[in-house]
Structures are given as C-alpha cells and as structure tokens.
Amino acid sequence: MSLAPRAVLVHRRTEYEELLARHGTHGQAAFFLAARGRSADEVRERHDRTLRALAAVAGAVPLAWRQTRVERADLDRFLFGPEDVVVVVGQDGLVANTAKYLSGQPVVGVDADPGRNPGVLVRHRPADARRLLPHAAGPGAAADELTMVAAATDDGQRLLALNEIYVGPPGHQTARYTLDAEGGDGPGPEAQASSGVLAGTGTGATGWLRSLWQQRSSTLALPAPAEPRLAWFVREAWPSPTTGTRRVEGLLGRGQDLRLTVESDRLVAFGDGVESDALDLTWGQTVRLSVADTRLRLVT
Length: 300
Description:
By secondary structure, the protein is α+β, with helices and mostly antiparallel strands. Helix content is 21%, strand content 35%. Strands 1, 2, 3, 4, 5, 6, 8, 9, 13 and 16 form a ten-stranded mixed sheet that branches. A six-stranded antiparallel sheet has the order 12-11-10-7-14-15, covered by helices on one side. The chain is globular, with a radius of gyration of 21 Å.
C-alpha cells in the first residue's frame, strides 16, 4: 500500500521572530526600533501576513494527506520523502534554499507577502493552495523543470544549488587555483589569483550572476532557467608573473565542467548564498562545477 502524499510546508523565521529572539519581548523590540527612528508595527504586520499565509496553506491540505512543517534552519537535517509535495511559503530565495535538498519532488512556491517579492519562484497566492496541492501530487502535473548546478570534489563531497555556486576564499583573502574547462573549447589550464569563481543557472541569471555579467559588459548569452547550460565568471582576476586572466568567463553545457584545483590553504564552495552549508577545500583538492542531473520541479 502506497503512502498518502505528505505536504511539507517550508518557511523561515520572520523578522519579528528574530527581533523577539534577540530582545525577549515585543516592548523591548519596539523600543530598540523606535530608538533608531523605526516602528515595530510594519515588522509585526509582515509577521502576521506570513502566519496567515501559513495557516491558509495548512488548512488547504487535503484531509487524507499527512502534513508537517520545517524551518529553513533545519532543512539540512530534514529527510524529504519521495511522496512529498513541498510547499514553500515565503520569498523566492527560500525556494532556492530548499531545492538543494530535494530529488524530484514537486514544489509549490507561495508568496507570503505579495508586492515585496519578485515572484520568480513563489508564483502563487495562499488561496491557490487548495487547487494546487492535489494537482501537484497527480500524474503529469504541469511544472517547470529548472536547471541546477552541481559541485563535486575529488574526495566525494557534493553540493547542489538552484541559482549559483561560489568557490573562493571564506574571508577577504585571495583565492589561488588552477582553472580548466573540460569537455569544451578554449585555452588550456590557467593559474589564477582572484576573489572567487561563480557558476550559475538561468534562474541565477536574474541575480548575482547577472550583476557580474553586467559589470563586465559581457557578451555571453546567459541561459534560460530551464536550459541545461551554466554561465561562469571569475571575480576580479589578478594578472601577475605566475597568474593569468585569459579565462574569466564562459558557458558550460551537459557533459562539460569547470575544474578548479586549489592552490590556497583553504577555499570554500557554497550554493545560493548559504555559507553555513559549505564544502571545505584544501591545497591540492579539485572541485568540478557542472550542470546537475537533478532538476527542480516547480509547479506552474
């Protein structure tokens, strides 16, 4: 007998909850903000809207289903099942934070605060949940299959991201490495010193990746979200007698990867801005960045 679907409601602590955790009471939090010319009312209103959105989505879960909730900080310890329907209630970035822990489960993005989010990934309103959840669990549910990026090290570590993966120093030091693109055209390996390398998807091309693309007036054609291609950029490459700047941007398709061999004491690789869940890379290690086999199924 197959299990009934389980609705997993993903959320994050609100700004108001963060303030209460820091200051203890509403009055103390309000005093803290008032002393800086700000009001707690707006923060409390956004908190209330988020709670109402969560309540509306929870109430829309079919009675025969199971349901649970997971906070963003606990995602790396939560076990998603194959029968799950994942409902992300919050901002676009929360969908990206969740995607790396999934393996093909359908995702419904619900905007908890319409008007404050671009709505690229949280495309639906809380009132849509009653219709969307049975649809998402059914066969042939309409969904966009969004490309993800993978990092894999030579000692078996692996990391997934929906927007981008950054490889570089954990602080403000210079990253030193040898860069090479396998499976593609272009010059051979190059020793580089930079502030890091970014490889991202078409979804990420609306954020950090685009800012690098614009900053250097790049002529690369950035990928679309569902296109199985990545764009990569080297940040602030430094020319010296031993390091070059010939290879500072490019595109990767399926079967191609970007390889970095570490020549610093320590570098890190993390995805979608989540530095707390990073791969540690030491001198001599190699990390490969490529199009991931896993894709995010975002219900339309």
